[in-house]
Design goal:
The protein is an alpha/beta fold. 23% of the residues lie in helices and 26% in strands.
Length: 312
């Protein structure tokens, strides 16, 4: 990274949206820097097997897909900096990115691709068994639990939708919810209540996730009204208690919605000219690798047009 250089575009985040944006920006011969605080690929890299990305009929390991995307981006000249962004100055034509490592990068254009993390329960066993029975994505992992008993934690749209999806594979799906009624849309509730494989445990929270050292075997529960504790056996626990978008570091000028997702227009431009957002950090209904890739494509192409207009 050249500290005196003014980049055409800096991409913040190295998940599928950010890496794809890098591929397109690099191919357009834009001077491109991608800043990623962790491993390339984001949540995709932590997924054991991605079975629903086009072109891989037998699936592909998430880490391998991430490595391939990174290799493709660097092949087209994208520079990658492993650091965490701590602050931005976005109102001027030349924008400034400041990192935790003390770096300061100047750029004509920004693409925010910081993703969103699934909110954790924060209970014992959750981290230990993540990827070994604890999951936050039924679409990604449901097929690994054929004819097994599963638990879904949550009561919103995602919990019910993903619970219904799991019935394609599971022997049974138990939805554990801390209240006595769901928050999901009425039509989803109706479908779930008609589904013979689905049952509900109301007014209950999960206090711990148990396993045998290799995989999940069940959860410890507590009734929030009576305090009574219990145990539910299961081979997998799917957790849907909300998302936390990676937007806490953004300056006030970048408009966010009520849930802290970045607000964008049809071209994925934010409220600040020259700042675009792609992938799970922005407002959207579906959060999958495939549409993150689409977002990265659009954001990079719009960034190219923005920079070209600056240059006259």
């Amino acid at each position: 990274m050249d500290k005196d250089k003014i980049y055409d575009v800096v991409i913040i985040g190295g998940g599928p949206a950010g890496l794809t944006a890098g591929v397109y920006a690099g191919r357009a011969r834009m001077a491109t820097l991608l800043v990623e605080k962790g491993i390339s690929g984001g949540q995709m890299a932590l997924t054991e097997m991605v079975e629903n990305y086009p072109g891989f009929p037998r699936g592909i390991a998430g880490a391998e897909l991430a490595n391939r995307m990174e290799e493709q981006a660097t092949h087209f000249g994208v520079e990658i900096l492993n650091d965490e962004v701590e602050g931005l100055e976005v109102q001027e034509p030349v924008k400034v990115v400041r990192t935790a490592g003390g770096g300061e990068v100047r750029t004509r254009c920004l693409i925010l691709a910081t993703g969103a993390d699934h909110r954790r329960l924060g209970v014992p066993g959750e981290e230990e068994y993540s990827g070994r029975g604890v999951s936050y994505c039924a679409t990604c992992d449901g097929a690994f639990f054929r004819d097994q008993d599963l638990i879904v934690v949550g009561g919103g749209d995602s919990a019910v939708e993903e619970g219904l999806f799991l019935t394609r594979f599971a022997r049974s799906v138990t939805i554990v919810h801390r209240r006595d009624e769901l928050r999901a849309q009425a039509i989803l509730q109706e479908r779930a209540k008609r589904e013979p494989k689905v049952r509900f445990v109301w007014n209950t929270v999960v206090e711990a996730i148990h396993g045998d050292g290799q995989k999940v075997t069940g959860v410890a529960t507590r009734d929030v009204r009576t305090g009574q504790r219990g145990e539910l056996p299961a081979a997998g626990v799917f957790i849907y208690v909300g998302m936390n978008p990676g937007t806490a570091f953004l300056p006030a000028g970048v408009a966010l919605d009520g849930e802290k997702y970045v607000v964008v227009d049809g071209n994925l431009q934010t409220s600040v000219p020259g700042v675009f957002a792609a992938g799970d950090c922005r407002q959207k209904q579906v959060r999958q690798v495939a549409n993150a890739v689409g977002d990265g494509t659009v954001a990079a192409m719009m960034a190219e047009k923005y920079v070209a207009a600056l240059e006259g």
